[in-house]
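queue> holo job accepted (2-acetamido-2-deoxy-beta-D-glucopyranose)
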Amino acid sequence: MWGRAMLMVVAVAVASCSDEQLHLGRGINLFSRYGYLSISMRVVPRNDTDLEWIFREPTVDIFRSAMNTSLQTPLQASTEMTNSASPVFHGDFHMEFCDNLRQLLQAYFRDFTFERLDKPWRAFTASWSRAAVARHLGIRSSYVTGQHCYVLVRVSRHRESAKLGTASKDLELDEAVEQEVDNVQVGNAASVIEFVRNFGSDSIASYATGNSLYQVFVYNPPIYRSIKDRLRTQGVSNLSNVELASLFSPWSAEHIGEIQAASGNATVEEWATENLRIHFYLFTYTSLLKLHQNGNLLRKLDSLLGNEALLQLNLRMLSPAFKDSIKQQWFHEVIDNYLKLWEVNM
Ligand SMILES: *[C@@H]1O[C@H](CO)[C@@H](O)[C@H](O)[C@H]1NC(C)=O
Ligand SMILES: *[C@@H]1O[C@H](CO)[C@@H](O)[C@H](O)[C@H]1NC(C)=O
Ligand SMILES: *[C@@H]1O[C@H](CO)[C@@H](O)[C@H](O)[C@H]1NC(C)=O
Ligand SMILES: *[C@@H]1O[C@H](CO)[C@@H](O)[C@H](O)[C@H]1NC(C)=O
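queue> job finished
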């Protein structure tokens, strides 16, 4: 009875000071949804009607106020895709070779890095069934096996990004956090867990939001190896357009996945289906490669990709909150044990 009442009080207290905010420095509990983060962060198309949110993982203020602007160093998100002075596309066209399924998932979550986690992509994908992997990556589930190789092609448009500046080291902790730091006792794992439950395991060190279009090409291993070799020795820019088209056509690929938007925005996906169609000999299919060196299409896409999905996230452990180095070490030890357990068991 008492236990239950206490729990409810704690739950209410946490709820009142935690909300769903993607802000620098806020505390986030990586354990509460390890393996399921794609439920609370929009990183792949979802089957939901409410498309308004990007990030709904609860976060908590852990530093004293006024940290929002003082620490923010705005990032220039543009690898400009043209030599002219005004870029046609503010973003990045990227191709990644993946020898197997694990590398494909790793590639998809390449820009998500969580301190002390060796496989941050698992925090999103560990719960995904084979059907879910197929759906999220836009390929047929018969190709989600150990017998294939993949190329992930992605065009990302960043809209908003922020990164903690160097001044973050001098931040003062919120009083409530300071108290909870005092309550953590070396040798007592439960006190660390209690801290994590209230304020999180990590804090948000940088993030970027926007939208992207991506597509997965599936190959059988011998053909994949020859393409990978060809591109490694020649570079994309040295290949003729015909050769490039051929390598990424049904001529070479076993299967060409759907073009999907990270946010799942149907308007953008329909635009891609209509405008990125390629005719290559007998084949007709849609391909992101059509954007390659096509200024008109890129310019159009630049305006279509809005601020709808989470594209990058870097989390840092909350350990700097512990000024006492022995306490800090204990915090690491407990968290590491939990993280290893998750990584092994999911
Ligand atoms: C999406 O939701 C609709 C309606 O709820 C359902 O019929 C459909 O099977 C779902 N699709 C996926 C891929 O889950
Ligand atoms: C910091 O954020 C709070 C709430 O989000 C806002 O009310 C306040 O004006 C911001 N501070 C500055 C200096 O912009
Ligand atoms: C393109 O080919 C030339 C000559 O074969 C070579 O010198 C150059 O390094 C290649 N470029 C790339 C990006 O590999
Ligand atoms: C989807 O993208 C289109 C084109 O950028 C935009 O007009 C529309 O508002 C977006 N829809 C949602 C639900 O975000």
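queue> The CA atoms of residues 42 and 54 lie 5 Å apart.
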